[in-house]
Amino acid sequence: MTRRANLIITVISALLCGSAQAGERFELVLRLQNDSAGVLPAAEVCGLKPLSLNGRVSDWRIEASSPVRLRSREYCLQHEELGPYQSQRISMQWQPGIEGQDEAWTSEASFDLIQEPSEQLRRLAKSFAIYPRRERVERIFAWMVEHIAFFGIRRGVEGAEHALQVGGGDCTEHMLLAGELLERNGVTVRRILGAVVPNEQHHISASGLHNWIEYRDNGRWLVFDSSRRLLGAPKDSRYLGLLFYSNTRQLSLQPLFTDSPSLKLFLQ
Prior knowledge:
By secondary structure, the protein is of the alpha+beta class. It has 2 domains: 23-101 and 254-267, Immunoglobulin-like (Sandwich); 106-252, C8orf32 fold, CATH 3.10.620. Helices cover 26% and strands 35% of the residues. The protein is built from 6 helices and 16 strands. The protein has helices at 2-22, 103-108, 119-127, 133-147, 160-166, 171-183; strands spanning 26-34, 43-48, 52-53, 56-64, 68-70, 74-79, 87-99, 149-150, 168-169, 189-198, 209-217, 220-225, 230-232, 237-244, 256-257, 263-267. The strands form 3 sheets. A 10-stranded antiparallel β-sheet has the order 13-12-11-10-14-3-4-7-1-16. The chain has a 4-stranded antiparallel β-sheet with strand order 5-6-2-15, with no helix packed on it. Helix 4 (133-147) runs antiparallel to helix 6.
């Protein structure tokens, strides 16, 4: 009877979480700037579709002040003709649907580890193997917070080995080094590009763009974010995933992109 009651509570909790998540709505304002003395014809700008909210994958609804076209992993917005140095603003709203299945995303988020790690990285990863598997996550997190400083936003990707050597890095280096340590200790993770939005806000701005780790724990995806010192389920912010990295080449991807070198994109 107790087991049946626990199952009912689990199902109700999942439904309530899905309903609450489906009620979220996020706002974005995109400014397009023609950076040339010529005329840019009407065309499209595209972006990464949202995937997850606090570790839960959903099918998202996107509305915009200009025509929007959805692809499998992207959305595209139609912009007007832009005269010399002219700009246009496009507003968007993102809303998650009912929670979906994320098993397919787990395999797609596989990410190759460093093939020839340094002796320092090998020794460090091995030092956590003495602990039970669940405790390893907490130990690695504590080590990252104590030994790897957050340097703020930096241009370019310097990598996990660099962060280990200099004792710091931006959120990308935190994500890469933590991913190496966790996966080498048997923890299932995904490396994420997305945005962090405080609970009291609904506006996504450029300052909220972020990289972090999510790790699999007892059937749930939880946040491992040593640069913001958060481990587990977020309480004060929402973690909105746009891309689960599957290789190092994707680290250069941007949330918004265009084929026109004269068109500059700003998330306000």
